[in-house]
Amino acid sequence: MNKLFLVIFLVVSQWCRAQEFQAGDFGILADGQTLNTRSIQAAIDHIHEKGGGKLVFSAGNYVTGTIYLKSNVTLHLEEGASLLGSNNPFDYVKDPYVNWQSMIFAIKQRHIGITGKGTINGRGFQTAVNAVQNVHRGIVEDELKLDRVREWNRPENIYFRECEDVTIQDITLRDPGSWNQTYDQCVNLLVERIKVDSKSYWNNDGIDIVDCRNVVIRDSYFDAADDAICFKSHDANAFCDSILVENCVARSSASALKFGTVSRGGFKNFVVRNLTVYDTYRSAITFAAVDGGFVENILVDGVRSINTGNVIFLRIGDRWSQGKKPYMKNITIKNVYAEVPLDKPDAGYNYEGPIEDLPRNISPASIVGLPEYKIENVRLENIELVYPGGGNPLYAHRGTDPSELDSIPEMADKYPEFSQFKELPAWGFYIRHAKNIDFKNVTFKAARKDYRPAIVTDDLTGGTWTGVRFEEPQSDEKKQYIFHNSQNINVD
Amino acid sequence: MKRIAYLGLFFLMAANVQAAEYNASLFGCKSDGVTNNTSSIQYAIDFISGKGGGTLHFYVGRYLTGSFELKSNVTIELHEGAVILASPNVYDYLNYSGSRALIYANGQSNIKIQGKGVIQGQVPLFTANMENLTSKGIVRKDSQHLLPDLIRIENSEQVTVDGIMLLNGLENVQSYIGCRQLSLSNQIIKSNAYGSSTGIFLSACSAVELRSLYVDASGKPLREEGKNEIRLQENCVTPNGKKL
Fold first, then answer.
1. CATH architecture designation of domain A18-204
2. What are the pLDDT tens digits along chain A (492 aa)?
3. Closest by alpha carbon to A392, among A362, A432, A356?
4. What is the C-alpha separation between A487 and A380, in angstroms, rounded?
5. Where does the chain cross the membrane (chain A) (predicted)?
6. How many angstroms separate the CA atoms of A230 and A67, rounded?
7. Which residues, in sequence order, are bridge partners of residue B86?
8. What is the ipTM of this complex?
9. Domain boundaries defined on chain A
10. Fewer Cβ close by (within 10 Å): the C or N end of chain A?
């Protein structure tokens, strides 16, 4: 009997201790030159077969191509340890199951992680440039859309698919050739205290969570060329569910917090708390349902958005819906302070966002549905939006006559972006095709006089607006809101 | 038979005239805003011109460069989001007949810059570098002639700059001297970072057409020298609603 206890004790303690294995013991070299792909894979396979444990990389530079992480194995990068991506595009596998390239894959594995204060640096700029030249040489096929290799033909740093119990802690992620990290249809994902510093090439998203359930992202920092904290839904029969994002800082040359663009299934039950956004080119918050997906039960509480081009952009579109009906409802955004600059917010960062959709004065925040798909039940509470104002009608003009408001294109099948309509008729908020939009204690400030009113609604039914205030120089007589085709809005 | 021969000849000629399309990446241009692409861009233009002409396409991205010269029958197409970014280093600019420019041409015909893209100067950085050089006595104080234009075209014909946004020039955003059949259209010019910046400088040009220009410049929107024949000016305004 005692013997049995002893055996159980030994097994359990062994399992809890997460046995450590040193990378050096597998002949993995930290010289910054040797391609370690095969050795790292052998180490992972070995640890996996032994029942699991940690593969520890001590300080040094470890060059690698594609490796596959397996169940019960954690890669632990000690401070000063860097996994460096090979610059040879042929060192990366395009995994046939996910049809994408990555440095670190995990597919259908459980209880895995990447931890430690070390770095994963994809060195993706040079790899992407080399990939373009392979296409020009005629040895790799790619359409070279926008003169670059498509994003699935460039390596990410991390791509996990259908994994369970995933821990990503303390690491720094840098410069992949594509997105930084994708977690696709994973369950129980914890991401904490990580740093993403990645402005090296197109599509450098900070983090992409695709159709995952039970996710926590907290105490993390994202500085990325493309969307910083991004949720997607690739599968029409799956969706992102039960997600907490808290105490994060985001800087992006696209959007800081984004749902979409690919939005086939949907997004529900989100809490986002204490988000700081700065020097961000597009929107602090973009929720897009443009491919038939839904957005539902979302609470955003506490946003500080400084020097960011746009504050809120909620959009229903009809791009790749294939008959599926999109909806967006029950969204609360509260306790927001935002400053929108006159000049380009991300000037000076590598891979600045593209100057586009001009001529256009400063764009307002917007909620834009479609005539057949309204955005419903949005509550905006305790919000202060500070704009530069100064919209000049000679530069770009959109009046508030019914005919001019009706002339704003729907752009249902276009890529959703706050700037897509070019000039909009309001400087603060534009709402179209929506139901029950409530404002409570919302202040709009313009530093200089703008030719437009602060708010324009078009096809809005229902809403209670209390404590909505406007500050704009030389505008005492100006009517700050225009209701077009709108009804049952109670303003007091 | 003769007919077929003519037809064949026609197709051959048509194929010959048909402009070829080239991506900037083919010549190693990098869109990171950091790599200096001068040599690649110049090689591309010379190459395309040598093949009888064509279009060099720049897609979204920021292409840092110093001076390069346009050649006959070459079109620079800046797609939406593409930025030709002027180097802040004065030594990256060549001295062309006493003047400097980011994009220069002399004695060429049928040259075009078109698209929704941007040509952007880096004025605060450039002037800071100049001040540094003057303070060390390396560059003389009266060094105005060193200030590059974003575009300077001399003695050329069939010159078109269509749809481009021009940002932050120095003394002259764009200069055209002794050009014939010059068409500037659909441009947005914003140049307020330098003390007195001229939007468009024209000297001894004929058959000039100005269409749909929005010129927001700290100096004159349009400055003329000598005799110019402006055949058409329509829908050209400053931020105050004045004509050029």
1. 3 Solenoid (2.160)
2. 566 566 555 555 555 567 999 999 999 999 999 999 999 999 999 999 999 999 999 999 999 999 999 999 999 999 999 999 999 999 999 999 999 999 999 999 999 999 999 999 999 999 999 999 999 999 999 999 999 999 999 999 999 999 999 999 999 999 999 999 999 999 999 999 999 999 999 999 999 999 999 999 999 999 999 999 999 999 999 999 999 999 999 999 999 999 999 999 999 999 999 999 999 999 999 999 999 999 999 999 999 999 999 999 999 999 999 999 999 999 999 999 999 999 999 999 999 999 999 999 999 999 999 999 999 999 999 999 999 999 999 999 999 999 999 999 999 999 999 999 999 999 999 999 999 999 999 999 999 999 999 999 999 999 999 999 999 999 988 999 999 999 999 998
3. A362
4. 19
5. none
6. 24
7. B65
8. 0.89
9. 18-204, 274-492
10. N
CA of B165: which chain A residue's CA is closest?
A358
Residue B183: both structure tokens together: 């068409």
Q: Give B116's contacts in chain A (Cβ within 8 Å).
A: 356, 358
Domain annotation for chain B: domains and CATH numbers: 21-234 (2.160.20.10)
Q: Which residues of A touch B (CB under 8 A)?
A: 125, 129, 132-133, 136, 144, 146-148, 200-202, 350-352, 354-356, 358-359, 392, 394-395
Beta bridge partners of B188: B165, B214
Asked whether the beta carbons of A405 and A458 are under 8 A apart, the reply is yes
pTM over 0.90: yes
SS3 B178: coil
Kind of pairing, strands B99-106 and B95-96? antiparallel
CA A365 to chain CA mean position, Å: 18
Q: Which residues of B touch A346 (CB under 8 A)?
A: none
Short-list B187, B179, B181, B188, CA closest to B161: B187
CA A386 to chain centre: 24
Round to whole Å and give the CA distance between B75 and A421. Answer: 29
Tokens 């890669």 locate to A75
Helices (H), A113-239: 124-136
Q: Which two tokens stand for residue A131?
A: 């990939």
